[in-house]
Write a structure and sequence with these properties.
The chain is mainly α and 497 residues long. It has two domains: 182 residues, no CATH class; 300 residues, no CATH class. It has 20 helices and no strands. Helix 4 runs antiparallel to helix 6, helix 9 packs antiparallel against helix 10 and helix 10 packs across helix 17. The longest helix has 34 residues.
Length: 497
């Protein structure tokens, strides 16, 4: 069930009404049943996979807690290792086995060796990467004694399957969500209004911006040989905003839906395209995943505590894993490594850039310098997005080679279409809507960057102004959203991970 489907628009109000109507002792069971139904709407069989992951990690937590009380450190480590192997083994089979066998066959072929390996054609369960990492995070927290093990399986199953964030995050920590599941949440009109407003903004990002950009990006990427390098670059710039509004929109809907029910989920994005460095970008992009890798991979490897070169090794390895987490393909590996290399290079050249700036008398405390930093940061990030968006590493390299060989500056100014891209992709009227929406997006992000709460700002305004904003948002989604002649809800990009 997609957030942008008519089914969810019926499902969610019913869940909310039931949650606030039934007695406290049944609320968690109600949400667990709703979450199971929500997930089973994709594939009922894979609900069993989700519940088996929940049972193994729940039982593992109990065994780890018991071993800790008996001061059996070896047994504690064995249980953790077994649970890690189970969770990663399931994830590996569904997500990476076909990639591994295919890469092995192609690698051996380079040495003149021809082999046949079994073909694994399995459907990737929706959200498996997200709930697997959430389960692993819980086990690590219990192992570190940062939380006590949860002894109630139903509560733990709800923690892992809570429907707003189940299939695409945020990847919640047990320290944040578990205690909220035990608490009672009563109806709060102000909180409900805040949650609905955040959901509306998420729908605006998804339906008005992301799905509109997707039309143009898909046209160019699927027929790149019919376009110039400049047009490919333009489509790649737009893809940066497509993936932001698609995933950021999902996160806002998830956080907003949870807020309506009384739960506070992790903020997943914080104006990432205002970042002045790649490292700052990653502190503000997909925050729940970035912090997961930091706390459970990068820091345990030694972080930056064991010298500069080991710090770089740890950083590159972490981003390599991040790339693989996003997808089973060499293009994702390159994407992850590029983002790691950007940060290593930035750290290595920091002293030189500071010296050069002083020599050239460049002021660092002014708008123009920050604008330059943001432009360069966006350029580096956007170049890496090309590998993320391409169907494969080979396709990405071919697009790069073609774009360099055919810059085609003149095609960008074709008066018969939007920057020379076929009108079937995006008309000038549609592009104007997109442009105005992107300006609004960056204004909102700019306000958030300054730590301004837009919802609180609206609450301080006169009632006529507030309702003008509310109705404006609703009508923008209804009238300007991309729906198609026979509406089929467009899936969210991060569902494939």
């Amino acid at each position: 069930m997609l957030f942008n489907s008519t089914g969810f628009l019926i499902f969610f109000p019913l869940v909310v009404l039931g949650y606030f109507w039934i007695p406290k002792k049944y609320k968690s069971l109600w949400l667990l049943g709703a979450s199971c139904y929500f997930y089973a709407s994709w594939n009922p069989v894979y609900l069993l996979l989700l519940l088996s992951t929940a049972f193994v990690s729940w039982a593992g937590g109990i065994l780890i807690g018991g071993a800790e009380r008996k001061q059996n450190r070896f047994g504690k480590k064995c249980v953790l290792a077994g649970c890690i192997l189970w969770n990663l083994g399931v994830l590996f089979f569904f997500k990476y086995i076909a990639f591994l066998t295919g890469s092995l066959v192609e690698g051996l072929r380079l040495f003149g060796i021809s082999v046949r390996l079994p073909v694994y054609d399995v459907i990737l369960p929706v959200g498996i990467s997200f709930y697997t990492f959430q389960a692993l995070g819980y086990l690590f927290d219990v192992f570190r004694k940062e939380i006590s093990e949860e002894r109630n399986f139903l509560r733990y199953a709800l923690f892992l399957s809570f429907f707003p964030q189940l299939v695409a995050g945020p990847i919640e920590r047990s320290k944040n969500l578990m205690h909220q599941i035990r608490e009672e949440h009563s109806y709060d009109p102000k909180r409900v209004k805040s949650g609905l407003l955040l959901m509306g903004w998420g729908y605006f990002q998804k339906l008005v911006i992301a799905d509109r950009i997707a039309i143009l990006v898909t046209e160019v990427y699927e027929h790149y040989t019919e376009y110039s390098g400049l047009q490919i670059g333009f489509a790649t710039v737009l893809f940066a905003f497509q993936i932001y509004c698609d995933f950021g929109g999902y996160s806002d809907i998830a956080v907003g839906a949870a807020r309506v029910l009384g739960f506070s989920l992790t903020k997943n994005f914080n104006s990432p395209y205002y970042a002045v460095s790649v490292s700052e970008f990653w502190r503000n992009w997909h925050i729940s995943l970035t912090s997961w890798f930091r706390d459970y991979i990068y820091i345990p490897l030694g972080g930056n505590r064991r010298g500069k070169w080991k710090k770089y090794r740890n950083l590159l390895f972490t981003f390599l894993l991040s790339g693989l987490w996003h997808g089973a393909g060499w293009n994702y590996v390159v994407w992850g490594m590029l983002n790691g290399l950007y940060q290593v290079t930035g750290d290595l050249t920091g002293s030189f850039r500071l010296w050069l700036g002083k020599r050239l008398r460049i002021r660092r405390d002014c708008f123009s310098y920050r604008l330059l930093q943001r432009g360069l940061t966006f350029g580096f990030i956007d170049f890496a997005w090309l590998f993320f968006r391409a169907d494969s590493l080979t396709a990405a390299l071919r697009m790069l080679a073609y774009g360099v060989a055919n810059p085609g500056l003149y095609t960008f100014f074709d008066p018969n279409s939007v920057f020379g891209i076929r009108a079937v992709a995006l008309t000038e009227k549609e592009f104007l809507v997109l442009l105005m929406s992107l300006i609004l997006l960056m204004l909102v992000d700019g306000w958030k960057r300054k730590k301004k709460d837009i919802r609180e700002m609206l609450d301080r305004q006169n009632i006529w102004f507030r309702w003008l904003v509310y109705y404006g948002l609703i009508f923008s989604i209804v009238l300007l959203g991309v729906y198609g002649p026979e509406y089929n809800a467009s899936t969210f990009l991060y569902f494939q991970f």
